[in-house]
């Protein structure tokens, strides 16, 4: 485990402490969780952009053209 010193505005620190208390976790745990969530979101975005760059509109439309045109079952219908 690493130690990290972070400077926060007083108002943010106050909200952070209050939230950690409400959640029943330490400020350190809350920060670690928040950083982990942010990293996961950024990695997911990077992954999806990389996958999208390998795709093509023509291949997508070709796949859609092979889908049978049938009515959805009653429980799958919108509205």
Please tell me about this protein's structure.
The chain has 3 helices and no strands. It is mainly alpha-helical and 79 residues long. The termini are far apart. Helix 1 packs across helix 2. The model has no long low-confidence stretch (mean pLDDT 95). The chain has a domain of 32 residues.
Number of helices: 3
Beta-strand percentage range: under 5%
The rounded Rg comes to 23 Å
Can you tell me the overall shape? elongated
For the termini, the CA-CA separation is 52 Å
Helix fraction, binned, reads 55-70%
Number of strands: 0
Mean pLDDT: 95
Low-confidence stretches: none
Q: Could you describe the largest sheet, including whether it forms a barrel? A: none
Query: What is the multimeric organization of the chains shown?
Result: single chain
| Helix/strand/pairing category | mainly alpha
Order of helices and strands: HHH
């Amino acid at each position: 485990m690493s130690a990290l010193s972070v400077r926060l505005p007083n108002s943010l620190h106050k909200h952070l402490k209050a939230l950690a208390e409400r959640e029943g976790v330490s400020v350190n745990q809350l920060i670690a969780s928040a950083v982990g969530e942010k990293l996961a979101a950024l990695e997911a975005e990077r992954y999806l952009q990389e996958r999208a760059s390998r795709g093509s509109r023509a291949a997508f439309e070709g796949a859609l053209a092979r889908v049978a045109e049938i009515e959805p079952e009653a429980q799958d219908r919108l509205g």
